[in-house]
Design goal:
The structure is a single chain. The protein is built from 8 helices and 12 strands. By secondary structure, it is α/β, with parallel strands linked by helices. The longest helix has 19 residues, at 107-125.
Length: 231
C-alpha cells in the first residue's frame, strides 16, 4: 500500500523537523517547503494528499498560497497559525482550508487531525456512485463532478462532500453536528461554525442566495436542509 503524502510548509525549521519526524514515524511520506513559492512548486511535484500550511510565510503568505493551491490541487489543507483571533481562522476556512491548528500545538494532535481528514476522504469514496439529479443541479460522485444549469462548478473535496451529504437527504434537516460527523468525521476538534463558513462558499459557487434558496435552506437554530426539486 502506497504511503499517503503530507507536505509541511513552515519557515520555522524546528517546527518542520519536529512535524516531519513525527509524521514519518506515523507512516506518512513527507516533504517540506519554507516559503510560499516553494510550497506551490512542491505541490505540483510531490502531489500531496494533505498540506500543513503556515499562515505567516515569507514572500507569499499562507492565505495566498491556499488561494492558488485551490485552483490546481484537491489536497486537504490544515492551516497553522500563531494567531488566536477568530477572524484569522474564519478567513482561512473561507478561502478553502479544511481545518486549522493554532500554535503551539502537539504533533500528536496534528497527526490525529490528518488521520481524521483522510478517513473523511475514504468515506467520500464509499458514497453511492449513482448521480444525484435535481432541477438545475447534477452531482456525479464517481467523477466528483458538479453541474448547475448544465455549467460545471469547481468544488473542493470538502465542499463536494458537504453538498453531497445534504443532497443525499432531500427535504430532511441536518444539524451542524450531523454534518460535521458525516463530512469532517467524528474526530473533528473544532468549532461547528466551520459548517456555516463552507455553506456560504457553496452558496456563492452554486449561485444559491440564502434568502431565495434553490438548493440549501437555513433552518435557524438547527442546521440546513436540501430543498432541490428532483428532476
Amino acid at each position: 500500500m502506497t504511503a499517503q503524502r503530507v507536505l509541511v510548509v513552515d519557515d520555522e525549521e524546528s517546527i518542520v523537523q519536529l512535524v516531519t519526524a513525527y509524521l514519518r514515524r506515523a507512516g506518512f511520506e513527507v516533504e517540506a517547503a519554507s516559503d510560499g513559492l516553494g510550497a506551490l512548486a512542491m505541490v505540483r511535484q510531490f502531489r500531496p494528499d494533505v498540506v500543513v500550511l503556515d499562515i505567516m510565510l515569507p514572500g507569499l503568505d499562507g492565505l495566498e498560497v491556499l488561494r492558488r493551491l485551490r485552483q490546481e490541487s484537491p489536497a486537504y489543507v490544515i492551516m497553522l497559525t500563531a494567531k488566536a483571533e477568530e477572524t484569522d481562522k474564519v478567513v482561512g476556512l473561507a478561502v478553502g482550508a479544511d481545518d486549522y491548528v493554532t500554535k503551539p500545538f502537539s504533533p500528536r494532535e496534528l497527526t490525529a487531525r490528518i488521520h481524521a481528514i483522510l478517513r473523511r476522504g475514504r468515506a467520500g469514496a464509499q458514497a453511492p456512485e449513482v448521480p444525484l439529479v435535481f432541477r438545475g443541479l447534477r452531482m456525479d460522485p464517481w467523477r466528483r463532478e458538479t453541474r448547475v444549469d448544465d455549467v460545471p462548478v469547481e468544488l473542493t473535496t470538502l465542499e463536494f462532500n458537504l453538498l453531497h451529504a445534504l443532497a443525499s437527504y432531500p427535504g430532511h434537516v441536518l444539524t451542524r453536528e450531523q454534518l460535521i460527523e458525516r463530512v469532517w468525521g467524528m474526530e473533528y476538534f473544532g468549532d461547528d461554525r466551520v459548517v456555516d463558513v463552507h455553506i456560504r462558499k457553496l452558496r456563492r459557487k452554486l449561485r444559491d442566495p440564502a434568502d431565495r434558496p434553490r438548493f440549501i435552506q437555513t433552518i435557524r437554530g438547527v442546521g440546513y436542509k436540501f430543498v432541490g426539486v428532483p428532476a
